Amino acid sequence: MNYIAVLIKNQINRFEFKLCFAILFLLSIVGILTGYALNYQQDAVYVRSAADNFLMISTDTSVIRRLITFLFPLLAAALCAGYRSKNDELHMLLRMDRRQFVYGNAFVTVGLTMLAFTAVLIMNQLLCFVAFPTSASDNVWGRMDYDLIRSYQPEYLYDFWSIQNPYIYNLLFIFNIGLMSGGIGLLTYGLGYVKALRQLKPILLAALVFILFISLFVLSEVIHIPLLSFLSYIEPGHQTGIVQCFSFIGG
């Protein structure tokens, strides 16, 4: 645990982590402030609940949401991309076995990346409770509460919970985003050990991973297979299933 603590401190102190986390935090804050501003002095009848004002759900912050989802692969890849396998001798200073050091850094990379995205999104949901009611007469579907069951579409990921409990629905997508970000962080970390890519600077390696995910997104649009797109699993309202979701993240 002492080794892990040193590795965590080593990652957090890197410029890449501080910059990416600051961008992620700033986007979340701008999103919540936008929601506050658009609903300020609004008639209570038209104010939506804290669940519907969550950053990844709200129609008021759609521009910020699209910016976050577009930058998501880049931020997830770059957050802990500062580690360099070829010249980092920290394992020697720690008197740590090389294999332990490699796996320890992999664990820290996944953990910190997941924690960063999850913490920022949970913070956004909690801030929604400050200004918005837990339940409201208006919602993002524009339907009355008793009529929401008609909007249920089983082919959409977690759509059952969007009707039963929108807060669980939001938490499930926060979990998806955290898990996906950890997977992208691990992919970037692993590519740093590929001989042909070792000479790349961390930001270039992160950019390479970003291009890979954007290429998959473009390909999914061209051949009409949304399951190839990362957006299908981190953005509500896409036709996909739990099996496809975890298969993509696992892959």
How would you describe the overall organization of this protein?
There is one protein chain. The model has no long low-confidence stretch (mean pLDDT 84). The radius of gyration is 20 Å and the shape is globular. It is 63% helix and 0% strand. By secondary structure, the chain is an all-alpha fold. The protein has helices at residues 2-12, 15-39, 62-78, 90-93, 98-131, 159-164, 166-191, 202-222, 231-234, 242-250.
Describe the SSE topology:
Layout: H1 2-12, H2 15-39, H3 62-78, H4 90-93, H5 98-131, H6 159-164, H7 166-191, H8 202-222, H9 231-234, H10 242-250
Helix pairs in contact: 1-5, 2-3, 2-5, 3-7, 3-8, 5-7
Question: Characteristics of this structure?
Answer:
mainly alpha, 10 helices, 251 residues
What's a concise summary of this model?
63% of the residues lie in helices and 0% in strands.
Count of distinct strands: 0
Radius of gyration: 20 Å
Structural shape: globular
Main structural class: mainly alpha
Overall average pLDDT: 84
Helix content: 55-70%
Low confidence ranges? none
Largest sheet, if any? none
> Helical element count?
10
Span between termini? 29 Å
List SSEs in N-to-C order.
HHHHHHHHHH
Approximately what portion of the residues adopt beta-strand conformation? under 5%
